[in-house]
Amino acid sequence: MAQCMRSLNPPKTLNPKIPIKTHSPPSILSFKTRPKSKKLTTISASVMLSQNQSQDQPPLSLDSLISSSRKDELFGSIKTSLSNCLSETNLHLTVPGLKSKTRGKVRDIYDSGDYLVLVTTDRQSAFDRILASIPFKGQVLNETSLWWFEKTRHITSNAVVSSPDKNVTIAKKCSVFPVEFVVRGYVTGSTDTSLWTVYKNGVRNYCGNVLPDGLVKNQKLAENIITPTTKAADHDVPVTPDEIVKRGLMTQADYDEASRKALSLFEYGQCVALEHGLILVDTKYEFGKGRDGSVLLIDEVHTPDSSRYWIAHSYEECFQNGLEPENVDKEFLRLWFKDHCNPYEDEVLPDAPGDLVCELAWRVRRKHKFCSYKWRAFGLGKHCFVDIAAGWIGFWARNVGEIIGINLIDAETMPVLNAWYQEFLEIPIIKECMSPQDKLLEHSKGFYNILIAALT
Length: 456
Prior knowledge:
This is Phosphoribosylaminoimidazole-succinocarboxamide synthase, chloroplastic. Its EC number is 6.3.2.6. The chain folds into three domains: about 1-175 and about 320-370, Phosphorylase Kinase, domain 1, CATH 3.30.200.20; about 175-270 and about 280-305, 2-Layer Sandwich (D-amino Acid Aminotransferase, Chain A, domain 1), CATH 3.30.470; about 385-455, Glutathione S-transferase Yfyf (Class Pi), Chain A, domain 2. About 35% of the residues lie in helices and about 20% in strands. Strand 14 (about 205) and strand 15 (about 210) form a beta hairpin. The strands form six sheets. Strands 12, 13, 16, 17, 18, 19, 20 and 21 form an eight-stranded antiparallel beta sheet that branches. It has 14 helices and 21 strands. The longest helix is centred in the middle third of the chain and has 24 residues, at about 250-275. The protein is an alpha+beta fold.
């Protein structure tokens, strides 16, 4: 496998010497973190990146990114970065306070006592194997997850503490449940555990979900379902909720809470994705238990690695004509390997063609622009007068709803607007200037009663 990877993507190692001094910020990415706790070691490291990954570049518009000329330009940039991917890290050898390293499929995880340091590499996994390294992928995955972690706090707490670098997240250590919550909204997929694979093989009860006859590939399910798998070192195994509890992988209470959160996260993710022209087809979530006993969302959220996305506007036409939906995920790379080898059993896999690697890097970047981690519902990246005006609309809508007994804005009817409104209320200046809710509600009720009396 190492030989297979070397010809296409020679591994770059994150193995910094401390301290690091540099006078070339466009090509050297340095990071430091000031810990919230004295137990969290200060980290200083550098990753050699290409000039094209400079954080000083202005953001691209989606139209310019998708245009053929811009795509060709990006492809040139991606090709020059093929040999400069972040494939390996060894922070534990040089950074004081990091006790050990665990190498996952994509992330390198370092133990720092009460915290974990997670470095998201450019490694691309599928079929429980490492297929290649994709330029910019680690950065996109980490930043996408951070955006979703922040935007889903109204659904569940998470383990994120800080992010000192574009590829790095520091998280609270917790007891990880050995179960992946795979949530699906469509019958699709190409792996052995995908819903379409098992369905076409005649399975009608999968992971505790009863499936009707007559479904076709890429069809939308009547409702979203969870198909859990065990987190195994070599191959994830589908499992039913009853088996999870009977085998002691989770208690019934913990499973019920995590499954509720998984379905709510997926529904919210579908709403946000659709507003960006995408369909969130399926994804997976992982949870852990904090020291206080709370169930926390961990690992990653709605990334191109953990999720399948289709282009919304062309889905129906593709489906009706029996065509594969346009997508912005790694499915085409999976299919290439299935056509050219047995990715589950072959000891050595063929090299992924450079053009496919570049295509996946572009799709990952495109997906990042569709669902930018800087996006806000109204403020276009920062709070402005439009936010304030819209915030007052939401504020008074809550008051009116309280008076007449109807929820005009809530997590079920308007999940995106509700989440944005909750964030709006947490802005320090808004907290400082907003009148107390109870006094405004009392005033509104008085005005409402006067109005009703005048009309009757």
